[in-house]
Amino acid sequence: MSGQQYGVWEVNKAPDPENQRAAQPKLFPVYCRVCDTLMYAQLKHVGGQLKCPDCGALTKVKEPPKEVEKKSPLVPAGQEYKLDPTQLIVASPVPEYVERLKRESKVAVEKVAKQREEERPKMPRLPTLNGVWSMLIKEPVPAWWVGTSAVGIVVAGLAIEAATIKGGGISAMYMLCCIVAAIIIGVLFWIAPIAAIWCAIVAESSEGHKKLHVSPSPWIFESFPEIFYIFFPIALSLIPAFATMQFVPWQYSTAVGSVSMLVFFPVLLLSTFQESTPMGVFSARIWGSLAIRPAYWLLFYVESASIWAAGVVTCANILLFAEGWILAAVPIALATGFVYFRVLGRFAWWLAESLPEKKEPEIEPRYKRFG
Predict the structure, then answer these.
(1) 204 to each of 60, 85, 107, 247, 327, how far by Cα in Å?
(2) What is the pLDDT of residues 201-235, one digit of tens each?
């Protein structure tokens, strides 16, 4: 082995990288004058010639350009920039068009706020008495009442037909078919649309609206959740009636159930709307309003009792004195329900405006499907 050999430095014997770079010969590029091949030369080659390894041409080595000294980006000590405490800082003038845009923006914001304030529903002194009919006589509520009444008459007719059939054989089969048809039509095309429109009326009325802006879907698959919003509170309200059936005559149980429905159903229904779930029947805000606003609840109970009493008396008179018009009790009962839920929604609006605001980071709508 002869010539320069590679070796390994011993531990802690290797020089610093700076010293290693300084010890290396300095090379600078030289390009062949014929084929422009890149070659490298040292300072000792200046003034001489290099032979191109590709074409063999000789190229004179010129002195390389001097390296530009790199300046440090740091400011030398003592030369830092200093503010003159005696110099006054004058704010730059704001362009006129910027001031004009600010004025126009402020005017636009005030205009929108004023328009929203004017469009915001104004609550009357007694919202459960004033403005109740405005929604009930505007579309789509009358169309929904006509449609649900027509389907209800069909369901009631099938039920009456099944109740009047006697005997066996073909008569029993016909009675069974009437019962099955009444159940299917009643659940799919009657109960679900009724629950959907009643929930929509309560939700829109609780915002103070005079008409139904969001019409619910009549299809069972889209309006199925509304069934639970209506009938789950009904089932809980009738628990006292079922509990007393075994101990008192049916007349007393019926009276207990009527009073229980009158008192507990609106509280349970508004609680489900407040909690945005059919299972949220115990909302502290709604149940607490019974103690905070007892006069409001008393007035609503008197109104709702009057509404249902008028509907029951009308239907009873039809059943007793006009048997041929017995099916007319269906649209009358539905109309009573429409009026009741409209009053309940207006009462929810009144109650919400009178109660202190609930401080939450994000306010949930009372009823998500129509919120």
Answers:
(1) 94, 65, 32, 42, 30
(2) 999 998 888 888 878 877 777 777 788 888 889 99
- The residue among 183, 198, 187 whose CA lies nearest residue 221 is 187
Q: What are phi and psi of 182, to 5 degrees?
A: -65, -40
Q: What share of the chain is helix, strand, coil (3-state, %, to 5)?
A: 60, 5, 35
Burial class (CB in 10 A: 0-12, 13-18, 19+), 305: middle
**pLDDT per residue as tens digits for the range 289-315:** 999 999 999 999 999 999 999 999 998
CB atoms near residue 334 (< 10 Å): 21
Write down the residue that tokens 């018009």 correspond to.
325
Which residue stretches of 165-219 are H helix? 170-186, 192-205
**What is the DSSP track for 113-130?**
HHHHHHHSPPP-SSTTTS
- Helix ranges, 276-293 (H): 284-292
Which residue has tokens 């010639």?
49
Q: How far apart are CA 141 and CA 338, in angstroms?
A: 9
Which residue in 40, 39, 46, 43 sits closest to 62, CA to CA? Answer: 46
Residue 83, phi then psi, degrees to nearest 5: -80, 145
CA gap 99, 219 in Å, rounded = 56
Other Cβ atoms less than 10 A from the Cβ of 23: the count is 8
pTM of the model: 0.64
